[in-house]
Amino acid sequence: MSISAARLADIAISGGSVLDCHPIGRRGVSIGRLKPRAVAIATFACAACVASGVGADPVDTSSPLAQYRLDTGHSGVTFDVTNAWHSSLTMRFSRIGAELDGFEGVASGRVMVTIDATSLEANAPFVTGIVEGGGMLDVMHYPDIRFVSTRLVRTGPLSCLLTGDLTIRTTTRPVTLAVTFDADPHAPPGTRQTLAFSADGHFSRSAFGLTNWSSAVGDDVHMSIRAEFVRERADP
């Protein structure tokens, strides 16, 4: 898959990357280690961004994959928004799940991410209940925030754009995520001891119908993701 520099300049980055895997304890789901299918996207994305430059051919993903587990101490997802009380109001989601479906190459793989909205914690304690309440996320009726990717484009040796559909409550909007990988550009994907990345982007909360408290809380939401996977063992 190739893309020109001019085309890349036209792509608007409006959201942050999503590749975390994390136990969703509220539902009793325990994910002690990443399934090969789930780690394939992290391995592939690193291979796509590291093993070749912008415009290179799709990477062969038929070779055996190593298994990795999420390092929860170095991983997390946050939403930041300006407001009248703090210079920045930060909300962190501590429980996230992710999986990959139909992964066959650069354009055909699909990343599906679920954020447990009930795991939200704000840096201003009184805000947590407000954001979880019926006037905002309404987590009692809509406990999940979902992202399903539709496109992956390499933009450099260690960077990609991941585009997909973000669903909050009942509204779905397209979001493009800017991803930067931490990786040894000379190491094959299966030999790395860690697979780590960070991602940043923005979306409009009013685009998802979250318009309450507009006089005190900004509309632009900065989404930031940091994920680090630790290698456990190679598949036989």
- Low-confidence regions: 1-66, 100-109
Written as H for each helix and E for each strand, in order along the chain, the element string is: HEHEEEEEEHEEEEE
- CATH-assigned homologous superfamily: Lipid/polyisoprenoid-binding, YceI-like
The description of the largest β-sheet is: 12 strands, mixed
Provide the gyration radius in Å.
Answer: 18 Å
Beta-strand residue fraction = 35-45%
**The CATH C-level class name:** Mainly Beta
Number of helices: 3
User: How would you sum up the global shape?
Assistant: globular
User: CA-to-CA gap between the ends?
Assistant: 30 Å
Helix/strand-derived class? mainly beta
The total tally of domains equals: 1
CATH architecture: Beta Barrel
Beta-strand segment tally: 12
CATH T-level fold name: Lipocalin
Mean pLDDT score:
68
Task: Work out the helicity level.
Answer: 10-25%
InterPro entries: Lipid/polyisoprenoid-bd_YceI, TTHA0802/YceI-like_sf
Organism: Paraburkholderia acidiphila
Protein name: YceI family protein
In short:
The chain has helices at 5-10, 36-50, 125-132, and strands at 15-16, 66-70, 76-81, 89-93, 96-101, 110-116, 120-122, 144-156, 159-168, 171-182, 194-204, 220-234. The chain has 236 residues and is mainly β.
